[in-house]
Amino acid sequence: MTFEPSRVPATAADTAPANTDPMPADTAPRRIVVVNGGTSVPSSSRRLADRIAQKTLDRLAARDIKATVAIIDLGPLAGEIASAIVTGHPQGDLLTAIQTLAAADGVVVTTPVYKAGMSGLLKSFVDVLDNDLLIATPIALGATAGTSRHALVIDDQLRPLFAFMRALPVPTSVFAAPEDWGDASLGSRIDRTAAELAALVASSVRSAITDQSWDSYQHTWGGNARPGSSPLEIDFNTDLMRLATGGSSRAGREIGTA
Amino acid sequence: MQFGIFSVSDVTRNPVTGTTPSEAERIDALTRIAVKAEEVGLDVFAIGEHHNPPFFSSSPAAFLAHVAALTKRIILSTSVTLITTNDPVRIAEEYAMVQHLAKGRLDLTLGRGNTVPVYPWFGQDIRKGLPLALENYNLLHRLWREDVVDWEGSYRSALQGFTSTPRPLDDVPPFVWHGSIRTPEIAEQAAYYGNGFFANNILAPTGHFLPLVNLYRRRFAHYGHGTEEQAIVGLGGQAFIARRSQDAFRTFRPYFDEAPVYDHSISLETYAERTPLSVGSPQQVIDKTLEFQEMFGDYQRQLWVMDHAGMPLKMVLEQLDLLGEEVVPVLRKEMASRRSPQAAPAPTHEQRVRQKYGDGQPRQPRPNANRGDNVTGTSPYQDSDPATPAVYPVIR
């Protein structure tokens, strides 16, 4: 099976492939990627994600900014995610999905609430991502649940998780309990979230940050965050590299935890 | 091109019979396997180093010295020697000794080891693993090349006027491979010194090691040791061979299913498809190994793990028959026919002696009379190379 991102119907453009050379900021189509932790068919988490994604496209279109959407449904990737947790090596469709996510200009993440928490599948998916995969990536957060008593799951669990990933969660998150689906205020919250996400995506904030300071973050050599560019990114001007080439052992003395 | 086997020395329950060999039985079995490797025409036998059960090989130098006495031709190596927790002075001494006993049939593969508790057992800290490895090799390199070494570093006591004995055979140090699965600094060190780079090429997706090998090749050329294609690359692998593919899968499956090294989250078939593990007929193993050459470029050494996971000795010996008779001869021919004429030859002691001395006689160091210490006089050897002056420290 190949990973075929499904698309929100209103967007005609193709999903752009993982790309390390961003096009000029104001003309390149923005890549929105949905990560859906819901596994039912139909999935209300997916429905929430689709609505946020569609509103984001509308907002971008209103600014004359082209955008595409790729969908990563985690259900069909469950086996690969479990394998990657054990082997440490994402493979197959999961690897394709991660490469798609790595190239995102904006992300929409939604999860169902299970046992008072985010879906374990979503957490496992994030667990196998490189730490630097989502640095400075704008991200809208959503959750669905069987009761409104779980309303804090997003702020309590998803925000800290994506803070660790150094992503940029937008100010408004969207929680939907059963009663919300019949309430017009859900629509306005979705619209507000989408407006925030679209504003951040339109501003190219991710590349504005990473173009300045990518080298100052820790990276996994050969990782997925910037595929294909890793060999060129090696910094030979480090204490360890000097030690590797017969240099002074003083370097070793000053190196803390590796 | 050299072909051989490497063992991790695991003592594992046989999942088919349910019995676990004793350490004594497994040590005897691996000795027979090493001798058999030479009998079936393989070029290399290597054994790992571990300091925790269920592995027995805490002293690969002792084991290899014994195998050296039982064999005539096969090259002995390690897979790997821990360059982090071993004192580089002891590595220099012990493996120079084995090199003499083996008449030059010894080289060394260095690695960091990945077991957290091992480090404190030897007074070290895994968080310093990488600088330890790098600094220790810098010292080892000098100990095998300079008669008298003054040295100061961060991880062991300083040396003043130290001579590592015996000097390497013919004053040609054992060839060194640096092993790594993810660390660019190790590839850089291998490239800087013009040493070999070994990718174990197991337990990870095929191609996982390619960026590191390519980095090593690029830096090997950068440091002027030759072109990228002349860099010296070794690859691991695992194989299980039967005349018919379906028999290979059927026979190997219980070992795969229970061996602790596989993660058991995916099937044998998927594992064999995605990783360098070769399971199948001789032709299938040949085809898969030829893909390594296609992917990594011409390389100098191919080793397989053939004796792990509780396989009985008889089965391993049969595997070696198939490997030596049906797989390796074809690979030798096929790989040679695809090989670039510029590719470097596989390193051997004879080749390295020729490289250093041409047709001349190799140096044979003879110590001066015992002066009662090791730090006075001009040199501990009668025939030290005047081009390498021994500079002695001031004794405080």
From TrEMBL, chain A:
A Pfam family reported for this protein in Swiss-Prot or TrEMBL: FMN_red
InterPro entries noted in UniProt: CE1759_FMN_reduct (IPR023932), Flavoprotein-like_sf (IPR029039), FMN_Rdtase-like_dom (IPR005025), NAD(P)H-dep_FMN_reductase (IPR051814)
Domain of life per record: Bacteria
Name the UniProt record assigns to this protein: NADPH-dependent FMN reductase-like domain-containing protein
Region annotation Disordered: where it falls in the sequence: 1-27
Residue stretches making up the NADPH-dependent FMN reductase-like domain: 31-181
Protein source organism: Micromonospora gifhornensis
Low complexity biased stretches: 9-27
Keywords from the named record: Flavoprotein, FMN, Oxidoreductase
UniProtKB/TrEMBL annotation, chain B:
Annotated Low complexity bias: 338-347
SUPFAM superfamilies: Bacterial luciferase-like
Segments for region (Disordered): 335-396
Transmembrane segments: none
GO MF annotations, alphabetized: monooxygenase activity
Keywords for the protein's UniProt record, in alphabetical order: Monooxygenase, Oxidoreductase
Superkingdom, taxonomy of origin: Bacteria
InterPro entries reported in the protein's UniProt record: Bact_Lucif_Oxidored (IPR050766), LLM_FMN-dep_put (IPR023934), Luciferase-like_dom (IPR011251), Luciferase-like_sf (IPR036661)
Keyword Kinase carried by entry: no
The keyword Oxidoreductase belongs to this UniProt entry's keyword annotation: yes
Luciferase-like domain ranges (all copies): 1-295
Biased segments, Polar residues type: 371-382
Protein name as annotated: Monooxygenase
Organism: Micromonospora gifhornensis
